[in-house]
Amino acid sequence: MTLHNKELTSFGNKFIKILHDCNLIATFDESSFRDYLLQISIKNKLVNLGKINIYYKPSKKSFSLLTSNIKDTEVVEIINKCWDKINNFATYSENSGIYEAFVDGSYINGKTGYGAVIFLGDKNIKEFSGNMADTSTRQFGGELYSVIEVLKWCCENNIQKIRINYDYVGIEYFATGKWQPKNPLAQEYKQVVLSSKIEIMWRKIDSHTGNKKNDIADKLAKFGASGL
Fold first, then answer.
1. Structure pTM?
2. Do the beta carbons of residue 86 and residue 20 sit within 8 Å?
């Protein structure tokens, strides 16, 4: 038996049930396993659509998804929605009127970048990307600054309520008082959040776990850090 067969089997079976609920036929067998990988074959009633890869990271007890072998973009969208469901990544619907921001920071070759994307339902509303003169806080500075940019946009566009999805816990902990800011940027960040009249909901989403909206923020932050 391969390493982590038990974890991958348990998760794979749960994911298959969700895929079936979305009218996709999904299967795997013993030949589908590697030590950290499970391949699931995807079909509809008419044709084989390809395979998806699910990776297990023991150190975080987390799973990630790769869909690049599936060429049908509509099927990929369905798979991603199922992935969001099993990981509790689901976002508010467009009709709810609640915006969602996904934020990230990056530090590459001595440059700090920030990135954020704002959604309403599945509609991409706004993207932010850039770099910072102060690189002393490295990628964490980019994470905080991305939220500052999001809140500025909310104020300019009279947005009353937003959920901010992050992977660096300081984003929430500085804002809620669980952590006390010690550097100037963190202090500025806390002041911006506390002085904002916007209703903010916080949600942690681990990076590189297959959330496509979070992946956009990651790419924007890396682009910002590249200085292009």
1. 0.84
2. no
